[in-house]
Amino acid sequence: MAKKGMKIAESKGRLGVLMPGMGAVATTFIAGVEAIRRQLALPIGSLTQMGTIRLGKRTEARRPRVRDFVPLAGLENLEFGGWDLFHDDAYEAAVKAGVLEARHLDPIQDFLKGIKPMPAVFEQRFVKNLKGENIKRGAYAALKSRVPYANGAPNLTVDTPALLELAGKLRVPVCGKDFKTGQTLLKTIIAPGLKARQLGLHGWFSTNILGNRDGEVLDDPESFRTKEESKLSVLEYILQPELYPELYKNFYHKVRINYYPPRGDNKEGWDNLDIFGWLGYPMQIKIDFLCRDSILAAPIVLDLVLFLDLAQRAPEMARRGIQEWLSFYFKSPMHAPGLYPEHDLFIQLMKLKNTLRHLRGEEMITHLGLEYYD
Ligand SMILES: NC(=O)c1ccc[n+]([C@@H]2O[C@H](COP(=O)([O-])OP(=O)(O)OC[C@H]3O[C@@H](n4cnc5c(N)ncnc54)[C@H](O)[C@@H]3O)[C@@H](O)[C@H]2O)c1
Could you tell me the CATH number of the domain that includes residue 71? Predict the structure, then answer.
């Protein structure tokens, strides 16, 4: 039986989405939303648009779409803007990013040309491999303006104690960091499976070739350091070597990113896993993921926009600042002080869906199910 859900204000009017950096991910997201609005494409990869949620007993057959279950803003109400250190409008930037093909960009060219970036706040000494001309001085003030904030990059931005306290005080939902796409997404799918079956790991070597601007920036060792940390820690947390020393103590983990322009946004990620089973016998798993990073990132942006807006309208959620239930989308999920981050994709999904059930006063799903056999 559904109890009373949380108070959620109605979604009214337009919902503005502002993105610092109108590059591959941002333009793939914007163009995709417009194509979906014009019914030229499907929102594949978006949990809010395509996903369903089971409610109550399995025998009740209640499985609404997520977007029909919680009062999310409609795609027709999204408006886009952003900042960049290049002057390109969203159409030019999308063409340069080389993610979407002309057959998707041409029909919505007018719409994309209307989105022009505001001047960026940029500090050259932090990012050596980028030189731009559309720059101003100052700081983003998302929190002070009570704008919910999702950080898709690995840098800290709001992830400091003072800013997180401010987020809670001002009732601004925040989440981050670093979108979980590509190789790390696969890691958080496979590692929970190895652990579930108590299979051991000697080593996991991951290497990538990619040729987008992100790859160019990450070719610089200093810029790669924060990214490397967020990529490496995932396995440590999922495999819990302190609990399973015989299986995971001292496993060797290496991640490499190589800038290789011919591939553009279409990265190739290789993984070699040296695992072991019964009596310690070794086995290997090889993965070659021909991956499109921005195609995986764009639906994440859409879901985060809609869920953060929802959290903003639910005072019980907003007052908590960090929205840990959105860990599902991040490589380095933000969490309360004193907690460890949850990286297992399946636990993250359960947490997300249970949060939605909680918001609507529905029963938590435990998967016990003994009553079906009474
Ligand atoms: N593509 C993915 O799957 C993925 C996954 C995880 C994280 N990310 C992160 O998302 C972000 C965007 O990725 P992308 O592939 O679109 O990269 P991109 O290089 O195509 O786009 C980034 C844009 O940001 C602009 N920019 C740089 N510094 C800026 C500043 N200070 N202010 C405003 N604009 C600035 C650049 O000019 C560029 O146009 C990156 O931080 C990346 O690390 C992407």
Answer: 3.40.50.720
Assign 138 a pLDDT band (cuts: 50, 70, 90): very low
DSSP three-state, residue 131: coil
Ligand 1 pocket check for 184: Cβ under 6 Å: no
Measure Cα distances from 203 to 200, 208, 236, 343 in Å. Answer: 9, 17, 12, 19
Q: Which of 25, 95, 292, 295 to mutate to test the pocket of ligand 1 (most atoms within 8 A of CB)?
A: 25
Query: Does ligand 1 have an atom closer than 6 angstroms to the CB of 47?
Result: no
Nearest CA to ligand 1 atom 19: 213
Lowest mean pLDDT among 52-56, 220-224, 258-262: 220-224
178 Cβ below 6 A of ligand 1:
yes
Same domain, 97 and 234: no
Q: Which of 292, 320, 347 is the last residue of a domain?
A: 292
Count of other CB atoms within 10 angstroms of residue 155: 13
CA of 214 to the centre of ligand 1 (A): 6
Give yes or no for residue 30 CB within 6 A of ligand 1.
no
Domain identity same for 215 and 134:
no
What is the average pLDDT across 21-48?
Answer: 96
- Residue 297 Cβ inside 6 Å of ligand 1? The answer reads yes
Within its chain, how far is the Cα of 155 from the centroid?
A: 14
Decide: 322 and 336 in contact? Cβ < 8 Å. Answer: yes
Cis before 177 (ω within 30) = yes
The yes-or-no verdict on residue 30 having pLDDT over 90 is yes
